[in-house]
TrEMBL record:
<dbReference type="Pfam" id="PF05805">
    <property type="entry name" value="L6_membrane"/>
</dbReference>
<keyword id="KW-0812">Transmembrane</keyword>
<feature type="transmembrane region" description="Helical">
    <location>
        <begin position="46"/>
        <end position="67"/>
    </location>
</feature>
<feature type="transmembrane region" description="Helical">
    <location>
        <begin position="87"/>
        <end position="108"/>
    </location>
</feature>
<keyword id="KW-0472">Membrane</keyword>
<comment type="similarity">
    <text>Belongs to the L6 tetraspanin family.</text>
</comment>
<dbReference type="InterPro" id="IPR008661">
    <property type="entry name" value="L6_membrane"/>
</dbReference>
<feature type="transmembrane region" description="Helical">
    <location>
        <begin position="154"/>
        <end position="178"/>
    </location>
</feature>
<protein>
    <recommendedName>
        <fullName>Transmembrane 4 L6 family member 4</fullName>
    </recommendedName>
</protein>
<feature type="transmembrane region" description="Helical">
    <location>
        <begin position="12"/>
        <end position="31"/>
    </location>
</feature>
<dbReference type="GO" id="GO:0016020">
    <property type="term" value="C:membrane"/>
</dbReference>
<keyword id="KW-1133">Transmembrane helix</keyword>
């Protein structure tokens, strides 16, 4: 497969992943699927926008660059038909690094959020939300989940969406790392299909 075709496939894959990450981050603004009365109910890590900025916005730019590599008409620079294509593949490495950094940010935020757990109401404090868990102790001890009385099924909501963000970010990092290798091959060897086929 040509390096340009491979990059296009990666771009096609990254766009839906970015959309999923943005949607998950937006849904986290509705703790337990409920409209928040005030921002104190929302988990702090949601405001870091790992899914919207990291795996979302910062991933769209590399995806669009990857999509355009196959159709990049850059022949004949410096009297060499393939050097323009090589430069385009080299630039894709830089965009892949930006995308990987954004996805890594999302992964780190998701890990911290999963470890801290959600803010929730308790039987004692029905009007104030607080962090009830520490050091991820609730992940292995489900009896602790009974401490949270709301909003909604907040623990499942929190874990599901942040786990989706975590997995999405890891897949994005893997795809961007693959594009770095693909870009290096395209930079060194050029696009195997050639960019000026008659």
């Amino acid at each position: 497969m040509c390096s340009g075709n491979c990059a296009k496939c990666l771009g096609i894959t990254l766009i839906p992943l970015a959309i999923i990450a943005v949607l998950c981050n937006i849904l986290l603004f509705f703790p337990g699927g409920k409209v928040a009365d005030n921002s104190d109910i929302i988990t702090d890590e949601v405001f870091y926008l790992g899914g919207i900025l990291g795996s979302g916005v910062l991933m769209i730019f590399p995806a669009l660059v990857f999509l355009g590599l196959k159709n990049n008409d850059c022949c004949g620079c410096c009297g060499n038909e393939s050097c323009g294509k090589r430069f385009a593949m080299f630039s894709s490495i830089l965009f892949a690094a930006v995308g990987a950094a954004g996805a890594a940010y999302s992964v780190i935020i998701s890990c911290v959020a999963i470890n801290n757990g959600p803010k929730c109401f308790t039987a004692v404090s029905t009007n104030v939300t607080e962090y009830q868990f520490s050091d991820g102790d609730y992940l292995s001890n489900h009896t602790l989940w009974d401490v949270c009385t709301g909003p909604g099924d907040i623990i499942t909501w929190h874990l599901t969406l942040f786990c989706i963000l975590l997995v999405t970010g890891l897949v994005q990092i893997g795809l961007c790392a693959f594009q770095v290798i693909n870009g290096l091959i395209g930079t060194i060897c050029g696009d195997c299909c050639g960019c000026c086929a008659e």
